[in-house]
Design brief:
Elements (H helix, E strand, L loop, with lengths): L2 H41 L9 H11 L1 H12 L15
Helix pairs in contact: 1-2, 2-3
Length: 91
């Protein structure tokens, strides 16, 4: 192996490490955002769907953006079941 190939492999490995760290950082940010939102939902007196906010955050960290989208659809879209605290008086 010459010096060029050694340098190439070093930068290739370094780029893989940087990419992996960025990957973990983005997933961590999404997980913290979901956890923060879950705390706000529970503070407003609403119930979490399926599991607790901590479990949603762990699922988002493991599953990524698709699980974060599922969390949003379940908790913030019109698919969310109406609870008694969500309903407005009919009069």
């Amino acid at each position: 192996m010459n010096a060029y190939s050694n340098t190439y492999f070093f930068f290739q490995d370094a780029w893989m490490v940087v990419t992996f760290i960025a990957f973990l950082f983005v997933r961590g940010v999404f997980a913290l955002a979901v956890l923060s939102d879950a705390v706000k939902i529970q503070a407003a007196g609403k119930q979490m769907v399926f599991v607790s906010g901590k479990m949603w955050a762990i699922a988002v960290f493991i599953g990524g953006v698709l699980i974060a989208v599922a969390y949003w659809v379940i908790h913030h879209s019109t698919l969310r079941p109406r609870s008694s605290s969500d309903s407005a008086p009919l009069d």
